[in-house]
Amino acid sequence: MTSAASDAGFVAKTMALGRKDLRIEARARDTLPPMVAFALGVTLLLAFTLPDADPQPATVLAGFFWITVLFAGLIGFARTFEVERQDGALDALLLTPIDRSAIFLAKAAANLFYIALVQVLLLPAFTILFSLRVGPGLGALLLVTALVDVGFVAVGTLFASLAAETRSRELMLPILALPVLVPPFIAGVELMSNLITGASFGELTNAGWFVILVVYDIVFFVVGALAFEFAVE
């Protein structure tokens, strides 16, 4: 009974922290608009600079998509602790009786929400500008996208906490995070390109990159939740 109440309290605190971040963003609009503007701007630039070819090579389209998501996400991650950093609010948050992993999960959930919104706009833009054809593989593409996003936000949120108190956090965050983010984004490019060329869901789940992506998500989400306490301290 005590354990169930404790778990319920943990979930409630995590959700409350996540809602707080989303309310702040809804009022300030400091994170999502720059991410969307960057993603759509890069997409338009690529659409007008690529040589005419119909269809474009699948690997090229998948690579452009995930590189755009990567750098748009890093823009958002750099602001993950911006509000708490001001006026020592992060120190006050750490003094409250809240498990550090709840703070991590709330921040990761907010970042995941921002990334998902960017992709909701980015996928139709790629479909229109690059004649992206996924067809029956749309469900599998959404699954791959979700798996890449989970690993992305776990690593990005953890390293954002490390870079938050540095003077050049916008520079430090990519330097710290990019080497660790190579595996999920290579997996995303490979799996997405396979889907564009007509791979089935069964072929996708049996692919080595799919297994690597699932294992990566599990490992780094657990590591992120456990290491976050030491990172913010």
* Rg: 19 Å
Shape call: globular
Largest sheet: none
Amount of beta strand: under 5%
Count of discrete domains: 1
Count of DSSP helices? Answer: 10
Q: Helix content range of the residues, please?
A: over 70%
| Mean of pLDDT | 83
Instruction: State the end-to-end CA separation.
Output: 32 Å
Poorly predicted runs of 5 or more residues: none
Topology pattern, helix = H, strand = E: HHHHHHHHHH
Derived structural class: mainly alpha
List the helices and strands and how they pair.
Elements: H1 2-28, H2 32-49, H3 58-77, H4 82-85, H5 89-95, H6 100-129, H7 138-163, H8 169-196, H9 201-205, H10 208-232
Task: Write up this protein.
This protein is mainly α and 233 residues long. The chain has one domain (2-232). The chain has helices spanning 2-28, 32-49, 58-77, 82-85, 89-95, 100-129, 138-163, 169-196, 201-205, 208-232. The longest helix is centred in the middle third of the chain and has 30 residues, at 100-129.
Key features of this structure:
0% strand; globular; 233 residues
Can you describe this structure in just a few lines?
The chain is mostly helical.
